[in-house]
What does this fold into?
Amino acid sequence: MPPLRTALLQSSGRPGSVAENLKVLDEAAGRAAAAGAGLLVCPEMFLTGYAIGDDVPLLAEPADGAGARSVSEIAARHGIAVVYGYPEREDERSEMGVSSAEVPQLPLGGAPRGRIFNSAQLIGPDGERLANYRKTHLFGCFEQQWFTPGEEPVVQVELGGIRIGMLICYDVEFPENVRAHALAGTDLLVVPTAQMHPFQFVAESLVPVRAFESQMYIAYVNRTGPEGEFEFIGLSCLAGPDGAARARAGRGEELVVGEVDPAFLSASRAASPYLRDRRPGLYASLV
It folds into this structure.
């Protein structure tokens, strides 16, 4: 299988403006596709912005909402798969199995109903919605105030012969999460994130170690700059199974590109003893 050229969009867009963030995404998708990328990964809550406070329930939408349809159009127009973060509202529409396009939108000022998740969605290069993941480990008071934790630990989809798994930000800091993906055969773990000061060691050190110890690629894609009470530190990276950063952004707005190489991954897994030397019978106390 040929390598999957993967683009990382390090940007905070314009918090609170879905329309402006879609413009940023459209431009980035065009540049990524022109650079030969087959996949573009955006940060956590990219569609709306992260530090949006009381606007979380107002900007949240179902997985098949207007924002998703716009991202699908962008992906199809540029022929590139897209992973983006957004606040997902689970309401009566999803429970009844009815498309959001079939139900009138809530009036301005109306009270959205249902639980809200911090989610990430993967849209295929043809515009099809392929996978949706809900963050399972919520970080800090802000997230715990507005979001419900997801309950599905491993979400995967095949793209170009590569098995892609999804986590969001804080999730990757739990070794159990990444190891679960390794055992399920994830080749590339995409991690939209909103990593803030002073936790830059996560991007610099922890993520490459996670990729090495679980023998996979990890695309860790961060926001950047000040946003509300937060200061995002950038440093997005594509870490390889050898623990090296195959692509690394700085602290500002940036689009970086790296390759996920199935041949290198296969060779690395054959050479690394971690997964085959596990002794699961010793680990019962962990759960």
User: Anything to note?
Assistant: The two ends are 37 Å apart (CA to CA). The mean pLDDT is 93.
